[in-house]
Amino acid sequence: MPRLVTLAAAQLGPIQKSEGREVAVERMLRLMERAHRRGAEVVVFPELALTTFFPRWYEEDIAAADHWFETAMPSNATAPLFEAARRYGIGFHLGYAEKTPEGRRFNTAIYVHPSGEIVLKYRKVHLPGHRDFDPVRHVQHLEKRYFEVGDLGFPVVRAPLGRERANIGLMICNDRRWPEAWRVMGLQQVEVVMLGYNTPSLNMDNKGFEAHHLRVEHSHLSIRAGCYQNACFGVATAKAGTEDGHELFGHSIIVNPQGEIMAQATSWGDELVTADCDLDMCRLGRTTIFNFAAHRRPEAYGRITAQVGSEPPPEWHPSHTSGR
Ligand code: CDT
Question: Which atom of ligand 1 is nearest to the CA of 48?
């Protein structure tokens, strides 16, 4: 008997700086209704789904950015999403900026059960960008200014997913480029990774040439490799289109444990793509080529956790000179 779940990536088009949460939530409700009509059981929304990608805007005083953050979940503005989950019997993933009662700020994602209960929370670990205003950059990327590094690790939980139970894990945007994030979840037998992203179409670092067409390729490459090497499904949902004059590349995908793209968004606006996923597909990789218990060699991987930056290797020199 296949363990079938219909998963949906609910891509959002741009959200402008001037638009309030109600605008985004209204659009998300329409996507949830569409998901329900199409028989989807889980909907994955993007990273920081309620607002524009505000880390592109510099604030001297960090507290001046607090209006982008949620201090409660659900909040008044997001409660309709939780109600829609109950109404349609759909679980959903949401990315948002979190400010805790202690005043800590995180880039956060949650998975919500159709009952409206939060099943799993994750706080982004790999924060890209920089902390201070960078005059060299065309556009700022201030995640290191506005967020602390996530303090929850990469948790995986076994919970209801559609009519099945599944091992569910969350990561956020830049995390998808780091094999360590995938492997920590693979080691917890993750079956479905949900992730949202906001990725500019252009490299704003201004430190060298990067061909535009490779930007999407690198995103897909990372997600496909992560799914294949850890024998899991991935639902990767983008914010897309031109937000406050800055283009985000979209191309949301659903990937199977063979690393194949099952569904892909093709527009730069609000778009729902779905895939019927047999969770038992995770078994093949997990019991053969990526049977971790049989084949992993942690004694050879010490550097992975002992070291942060790379180090140059030792120099090799010939032991005998030719006399020339
Ligand atoms: N939001 C986020 O993490 N974005 C980064 C942009 C980096 S530019 C290559 C990402 O990894 O997509």
Answer: 1
